[in-house]
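Thread: Modeling a multi-component assembly for a lab meeting

Hi all, long-time lurker, first post. My supervisor asked me to bring a structural picture of a complex we are working on to next week's group meeting, and I have zero experience with this. I have the sequence lines for every component (1161 residues in total). Could someone generate the structure of the whole assembly? Inputs are pasted exactly as I received them:
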Amino acid sequence: MEALRKKIPLTLPQNSIKIIRIIAALLLLALVIVRAIDVAAESQFGADTWLRLSVSGLIIGGMYALIAIGYTLVYGILFMINFAHGEVMMLGTFGGYFVFEAFNAIQVTATDGTQMSFLNANPVIAIFLAFLMGMTIAALSGYFLEKIAYRPLRGAPRLVPLISAIGASIFLQNAGQLLFGPQRRQYVNPVVLDRGIGWNLELSGSTVVLTYTGIFSLVLSAILMVGLYLLVQRTKLGRAMRAVAQDKKTAALMGINVDQIISRTFVISGALAGAAGVMWGIHNGLFNYFVGFLPGIKAFTAAVLGGIGNIPGAMVGGLFLGIVESLGPAVLGIDFQLKDVIAFSILILVLIFRPSGILGEALSEEKV
Amino acid sequence: MKTVLETRHVSKIFGGLVAVNKVDLVVPEGAIASIIGPNGAGKTTLFNCISGFYKPEIGQVLFNGESIHGMLTDKIAAKGIARTYQNIRLFKNMTAVENIMVGFEPHLEHGWVAAMLKTKGYQKEEKYIIKEASHLLHYVGLAGLGDHLALNLPYGAQRRLEIARALANQPKLLLLDEPTAGMNPQETDDMKNFIRHIRDDLGITIILIEHDMRVVMDISDQISVLDYGQKIAEGTPKEIQANPRVIEAYLGPGAAALSEKYRKEKTHDA
Amino acid sequence: MNKQSLQKSAASGLVFGIIVIFLALIGFTVVFSGLIQKVLGQSLGVGQIPRIGNFFIFLGFLGIWNGWRAARQDSHESLTLPKVLLRAFVAGLSAGVLVMVYAVVVGGLDARGVDMRTYLSMLSSDSIKFFLFNQSVAMGGLIHVGFSTLMAVVGGLLAFGSEKSQEQVKATRTKVQNWSQRTWLGKVQGNPYVSYVLMGVVLLLLVLLPRTWGAYWNYVMGTVGIYVLLGLGLNIIVGLSGQLVLGYVAFFAIGAYTFALTTSPEPHNLVWNFWIALAVSVVAAALSGVLIGLPILRLRGDYLAIVTLGFGEIIRILLKSDLLKDFTMGPRGVRNIAGPTLFGRSFTSDVDYMYIIILAVLLSVFLAKRWQESSIGRAWLSISQDETVAQATGVDTYKYKLLALSLGAAFAGLGGALFASRNQFTGPEDHALMVSINVLCLVIVGGMGSIPGIVLGAFVLKGLPEILRELESYRLLVFGALLVVMMIIRPEGLWPARRPKLERPVEPDQEPAAVAITVGGKQ
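Re: Modeling a multi-component assembly
Sure thing. I ran the full set together rather than chain by chain. Output:
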């Protein structure tokens, strides 16, 4: 009788929850595979389409990865989601845009005597300066963002800096709208990086264009990622960053200026986001003040996918998300306007089934 | 005598570090058992394994003969194990009385519908726990401070409030993690007497982590010594004081011989 | 006079200069001067540039603030007049010079006929001339420097004066307090009958006002009321149980669409009774809260935020997509949603809706208050303070978080259904992320966990922008800045929650012998 009167526990024991999860994951996977085979049987798309989608996914994924690194760096050190990171990228996009516009307006006489814009006469300088400008502006905004909106909140409950970050994000987005206007703008690329041209690949009877902008973006993001990895692993600053991420108090005792390291982390992640922003403009062309919002959320998704706080994880997560988002609608045979749904669904599924992400270790249990 | 808590070969591993290594512990009912050891010996980790914060990789934790291995902490609390924390963890923005009232949670019977309708039973229950919480507050010597926010209470009062909250769980076993940390000798003495009272008045078995040896030696029925995650000694206060391994764990190798020599010289002088 | 404090003054002056330039770049200077003009009772046509005098008022306030801040940069020292004047002067001068540089650059470009609106959308020629006080470029710049310095010095003097008179103010305040406590004012405070009378007055106003203040105000206040509903719901989730949910709009959408699809002739031709549909919408929203909560509530706080944000977006994109077009009408939205009927009479006028919303708000406040003050509210609060410890104290955190999410979702469902019914339309764009953020803002600005705070927050964030229509395009900008500033200087909100007094006196003889203890710090 005593046993009967005991309340039946509302939550299932841990083990059975695990089993249910695994079963649910397998079922879901089976569903996706069945659907994919179904769609493949209809053979709606040729090999050329698949290639095109994969490449464009890879390119977008590279940009996601760059932005995701910013989230991961900041999260690793402050345990907060820098919600305004997408807006930092937006400012970078505008920075590069203004450089291109300025150089496009300057007319110079080329060596063969024809009049052309500075942009086309010296594309390498123009592109370099555009990236420099975009990255500097984004890095500066990252620096001031931390100084104004986050630093006064060090040590506050976790919700507080997150809300401050949301506020900063809204502020920057609307400041962008009010400053630059709501209209969509077009990046004027130098002719060598025209969005229409590229390498033509013949595949199953049709041509696939690998655009120069895309290849350029992919290569540049790869270089930046390697550079960042070396910075974090090999330099004194990187060592200090890792130390602060491990334990702020001990790092401070070892003579590391924690505030300064945090500031520099924001500068670095801002610069990467700025580079991604300029790439976004060069590759996609159209943008406005809202350009940072979706990539920001997607990149956070990528960071979580890879295991937040883990830099290689952010890279892998970014590329993975880019490809899945690009191929997903075709594989499942659904409308391309639903690609964001696929991205978010993947985020939710990953968090439910593997909260530590693809490469992440289980976050260390809370110290008691 | 009946055994309240038993750990069998409990081990907890973090990465490559074995924080608790095959610890066997038997605590009889009504005892005050102390766990001592140098910093980082795994005392709090062992507490966390008992109260369900950590799930030990190896071994079993038995409470009243029943395995509580892998249970969620709220279920363990409902079974009758309550605890306090090394660095005080109160619900800071709630009043002292509210903190204690949360402690009654595992014994409440009325849900959100009853609260919405304010049924007779719900009102009675609410009245009862307010009264009980006030009594507990009185019992730990904080009468009159009940409507202050927990974060505004002085340090010693916060420690007492944490114990009151744990007592509200109506536990059979109480785990106290360094209850006298940061207290002056007078406060430490009060706390020592208070712990003894809890056992004598309420019949609650107590396990204590403590650094203050006067407290430990005065009130413990049984002392277990941990070092590098392993239990190196167990016994009554007298046995522990004379144990050379314990002295070495605290003072370093060779210390036991030195202290033996010192003691001999002292007796010789006398 | 040390160099450091002057450097500090110059730096704070430069920050103010940047603020003025930023406000000019986003066109706020013109709009706000116009608002001042209106407040002063002068008319201003649409698109008309306000008078220069009002710009001076606007700049004057900023300048005074600048000087004030520079003078009181360190609250511990005592101020002397020359120190104050010098600091304010430096701050005003540096701000003025920075603004002048901007004015000269912009004015010069404008004078050469460059149209900057291609890149900076608010920099019309008119607004630049306005910024230069309709003077020449050089003259305008100089006026900026002079006026900024002058006003900063005034601000410094004010700071000096207030410092000196602060003790007098304090004395006066205690005097007034003593007086008010001795006279009838003191008796009124804390008298239960007074609060009954106040409540009666509020109720009377709630009955009378919708009849008298016209359709426009009924619309505005109806919106405020719906946001109070949403705020109460989100408050349970964020303010009490401490779970940051950024996709709250999903529940609003589920409520609105459930109501719409069950009462509209298109697309399903289910024309249910208003009240049944309302109840079904609330239940549907609550159930969706449970369904979403089951898998994700084990996540830590910030993951939860981003997952729910993603969920809200999924719902919106799905509603908009062609995939569900036959079921939810896609981007067109659902039209001809039914209004309330009772005993065969339909209540669809603006006054009727206002009454229904008021009733819903009163009911919701009642329920939210009951839960908040019960053991459930305490359990929620303990989770928000320290989830790990709450669970170890015996609180079934998972169950309570789930309960908070579903109850909060139910409020959103009610709000959504009323919203859809009142507008007789709902479409995907009614359910954008901005709704979630607005509701979150009002909860935080009002004061997390505080019911009067939420009502106040809804008025501030939804009512004020309707009154200050001019500021419409700056609303979100101000929200964003407000969130950051609130988190830094007043994270508890405008009307913070207060904890109830519960301790009951204990009769010593009834008690088992209490332990005699001296508690450190307690006398």
